[in-house]
Amino acid sequence: MTTAALGRRVGYSTQQVRDLERLGVIPPAPRGANGYRRYRTEHETALRAYRAMAAAIGPVPARRLLPAVIAGSVEGAAERIDLLHAHLAEERSRVREALRALDVAMVEADDVFAEEDAMSIGELAQALGVRPSALRHWEGEGLVHPLRAGASTRTYGAAAITEARIVAALRGGGYRIPAIALLLDQVRGHNGPRAVQDILEERLTDLTRRSIALLAAAASLHALLVERTEQP
């Protein structure tokens, strides 16, 4: 096949095919007598595998994976694919744990809070299963706002405890500090913790989509690895 013909078969432009070959996503194409590239079945298989993997894990990770599948050992390629499934399962577990922690935060936010229920930094850290240094870091980032009784004494009331529980839930779900700051702005507005719950549930839905896409990619990856093992 010519570059254009291969591109039409897999839904890529001629330039995209050349770029992906340059990045090692597909094997180097041999040149014909006229100097033009000539692509074979293995090139189409590799491009279809890349397209499917890009839908499952994103274009950048897919561009890192395919050269290893093509040029590395078959055992190493199989191990990388296994790790992709494991990573999705681990991320799904973290998001579910974050949702459970958020449920606790939402229930406690509705409770009547007495002044004597305020917590010290050590008590709250123990309740959340984090280190006191984490709470101090979250405070420094503007995520949690304890009351100050002195230069070093912090007291966590109802609002600060809810903030800390939400931060802990989101950190457990794999969110970074900047993203958490944006979500907390919604919590402090009219949306409340329910907005965070919706976002976490959307993330679960996306993880399910990616898992299904990874299963769809398995056929192309299988064909690619079979071609590798059958090569002399």
Structural write-up:
- With 232 residues, this protein is mainly alpha-helical.
- The chain contains 10 helices and 2 strands, in the order αααααααββααα.
- Strands 1-2 form a two-stranded antiparallel ribbon.
- Strand 1 and strand 2 form a beta hairpin.
- The longest helix has 38 residues.
- It is elongated and about 85 Å long.
- The two termini are 23 Å apart.
- 28% of the residues are buried.
- The model has no long low-confidence stretch (mean pLDDT 83).
List the helices and strands and how they pair.
Blueprint: H1 3-10, H2 14-22, H3 41-57, H4 59-71, H5 74-110, H6 121-128, H7 132-140, E1 147-148, E2 154-155, H8 158-172, H9 177-188, H10 193-230
Antiparallel strand pairs: 1-2
